[in-house]
Amino acid sequence: MKILQRILAGLCLLVFLFVAVSYVLPGKAEVSRSITIDAPAAVIFPFVNSMQATEKWSPWLSRDPETKLSYSGPEEGVGNKLNWSSDHAQVGTGSQEIVESVENQLVKTDLDFGQMGTASASFTLTPDGDATNVTWGFESDLGLNPMSRWMGVMMDKWVGGDYERGLNNLKALIENNT
């Protein structure tokens, strides 16, 4: 009986430590990747200011070509919205809407992953001589949920590679067609 009590006490201690440490972890998950594209911002901007245009370089659509996509709102800019649905675990279901657009400089979007939560993403275009530095950022408030905070620690590892692949796709698309 004492062994069972020690095992139970040990498990309770582990759960307590798991929860306690989670509140020391960051309350926000952030991911950011950048690439320099040999083209002016005016050439790149249409590819990040339209959800329809992102189909041409998205790192996720190649994972599930059967992903169902639907669009609403204007063709580009603020209010342009994408809804997607996939049975593939790494694609899932959700929506993304452009909420801010500054021509040739910035695009901000709101993401809704349903039960998985919400986030924001952005594209910042910065001139670099004849080229443009494109930064793709992601930010999500993790709240007080201990599991979310532990997952937030892994977000850069989980999403960073996709952002790099997407930016490389965008670079190839633009540089091979200009």
Task: Explain what the structure shows.
By secondary structure, this protein is α+β, with helices and mostly antiparallel strands. 35% of the residues lie in helices and 33% in strands. It has helices at residues 2-22, 41-48, 51-54, 146-175; strands at residues 28-37, 68-72, 81-85, 93-102, 106-112, 118-128, 131-141. Strands 1-7-6-5-4-3-2 form a seven-stranded antiparallel beta sheet, with helices on one face. α1 packs across α4 (146-175). The termini are far apart. 20% of the residues are buried.
Question: How do the helices and strands line up, and which of them pair or pack?
Answer:
Blueprint: H1 2-22, E1 28-37, H2 41-48, H3 51-54, E2 68-72, E3 81-85, E4 93-102, E5 106-112, E6 118-128, E7 131-141, H4 146-175
Antiparallel strand pairs: 1-7, 2-3, 3-4, 4-5, 5-6, 6-7
Which key features would you list for this structure?
about 180 residues, alpha+beta, Alpha-D-Glucose-1,6-Bisphosphate, Chain A, domain 4, seven-stranded antiparallel beta sheet, about 35% strand, elongated
How would you briefly describe this protein structure?
Helix content is 35%, strand content 33%. It is elongated. It has one domain: START domain (Alpha-D-Glucose-1,6-Bisphosphate, Chain A, domain 4).
